[in-house]
Design a protein that fits this description.
The protein has 152 residues and is mainly alpha-helical. Helices cover 28% and strands 7% of the residues. The protein is built from four helices and four strands, in the order H-H-E-E-E-E-H-H. It has helices spanning 22-25, 27-44, 115-127, 131-138, and strands at 53-55, 60-61, 73-74, 80-82. The strands form two sheets. A two-stranded antiparallel sheet has the order 1-4. The chain has a two-stranded antiparallel sheet with strand order 2-3. The longest helix is centred in the first third of the chain and has 18 residues, at 27-44. The radius of gyration is 17 Å and the shape is globular.
């Protein structure tokens, strides 16, 4: 299935809605994510070198713990990439910081980019898709801007 020209798969993992005891409850879903990625890598063998795994969420988390030691729904989030097609282990994007003056509405990580932009550049790099099609049809309204340079 993932060995042909169209090598796209999706999976969903729950357990990230950590409104309480985040230091304890986040361990299980992070372990499941690590297991999913390592299982995929082992199963793909040499195809892993042409693979990019994008781990995204539909919501962010607050930067500060709430009264029950969890984090509530916030504005900014993150995207984790893995795969042999990546340009190396590094942080991409702008890091606004965690000082109170850096936070959005004094509680959330400030959003600095649209994750769809990085997803579009990934599709372009892996499959050669055209920029106008990515901006209008695949991710309507996204502006890809300058290349994200996530892929090698």
């Amino acid at each position: 299935m993932l060995r042909g020209e169209a090598r796209i798969a999706a999976f969903s993992l729950g357990g990230y809605d950590t409104h309480r005891d985040q230091d304890r409850t986040i361990r299980k879903p992070l372990g499941q994510l690590a297991e999913a990625i390592t299982t995929l890598k082992a199963g793909l063998g040499p195809i892993w070198e042409r693979t990019a795994v994008m781990c995204v969420t539909e919501f962010g988390r607050t930067a500060r713990e709430n009264g029950s030691h969890g984090t509530d729904h916030g504005t900014g989030g993150l995207m984790v990439y893995a795969g042999g097609a990546l340009s190396g282990a590094k942080v991409h994007g702008d890091w606004p910081g965690l000082k109170p003056s850096d936070l959005y509405q004094d509680r959330d990580l400030a959003p600095t980019d649209d994750l769809r932009r990085h997803a579009a550049w990934t599709l372009r790099g892996l499959f050669g898709m055209e920029i106008p099609a990515l901006e209008r049809e695949v991710f309507p309204g996204v502006s890809m801007g300058s290349e994200s340079r996530i892929l090698a």
